[in-house]
């Protein structure tokens, strides 16, 4: 169907079973989402918390079980990361947190400040804000909602219930009540333009690849 209407279908897998299912369903590409990735988890088969496989472990596992092109995601912040996942069999890399500090990202300044002051221990996977597991910087909103974790409704209900709080926090520049989605390596981001970031990534990737060829 996707070929007839000229639409590229991309599915997200957090473990091999999901990747195999996606291939059987006829997707054109599969994103292997490692546990380091920021934002919502793409798990659709099984418990999301038992599907937290790191990117470097996940990519070759999925590549070895499917013929569909694989895109690696999670913890990739520079050309070194792109070269690493491609060496493991991925045909492309997906970067999200690497662009959060870019001038064109549209991210609230307080959100960006929270990223700049975070480290690799600052994020947590939680369903408190939206009702669906997602990785973000731990703040007061997450902390307070954890006390009623057992009664939190699923997405999108919880997402709607917290929307007004998050919007008010944005108006008041208060990151403690925003949804600060970010990956584990987000602190490696730089305040720059998206175009410059892309050029930097390509340059870094080429340097790594060329160095590997020379060895």
How are the elements arranged and paired?
Blueprint (H helix, E strand, L loop, with lengths): L9 E4 L2 H10 L3 E5 L5 E2 L14 H9 L6 E4 L5 H9 L4 E3 L14 H8 L6 E4 L7 E4 L2 H6 L11 H15 L22 H21 L1
Parallel strand pairs: 1-2, 2-4, 4-5
Antiparallel strand pairs: 3-7, 6-7
Give the radius of gyration.
18 Å
Helix content: 25-40%
Determine the mean pLDDT: 96
Q: Largest sheet, described in full?
A: 4 strands, parallel
C-alpha termini separation: 45 Å
Q: Strand sequence of the main sheet, in spatial order? A: 1-2-4-5
- As a percent range, the share of strand residues is 5-15%
* Order of helical and strand elements: EHEEHEHEHEEHHH
The helix tally amounts to 7
Characterize the structure shown.
The protein has a 4-stranded parallel sheet with strand order 1-2-4-5. It has helices spanning 16-25, 55-63, 79-87, 109-116, 140-145, 157-171, 194-214; strands at residues 10-13, 29-33, 39-40, 70-73, 92-94, 123-126, 134-137. It is of the alpha/beta class. Strand 4, helix 3 and strand 5 form a beta-alpha-beta unit. The chain has 7 helices and 7 strands; from the N terminus they run E-H-E-E-H-E-H-E-H-E-E-H-H-H. The radius of gyration is 18 Å and the shape is globular. Helix 3 (79-87) packs across helix 7 (194-214).
Features:
215 residues; globular; alpha/beta
Produce a short descriptive summary:
By secondary structure, this protein is an alpha/beta fold. The chain has helices at residues 16-25, 55-63, 79-87, 109-116, 140-145, 157-171, 194-214, and strands spanning 10-13, 29-33, 39-40, 70-73, 92-94, 123-126, 134-137. The chain has a four-stranded parallel beta sheet. Strands 3-7-6 form a three-stranded antiparallel beta sheet, with no helix packed on it.
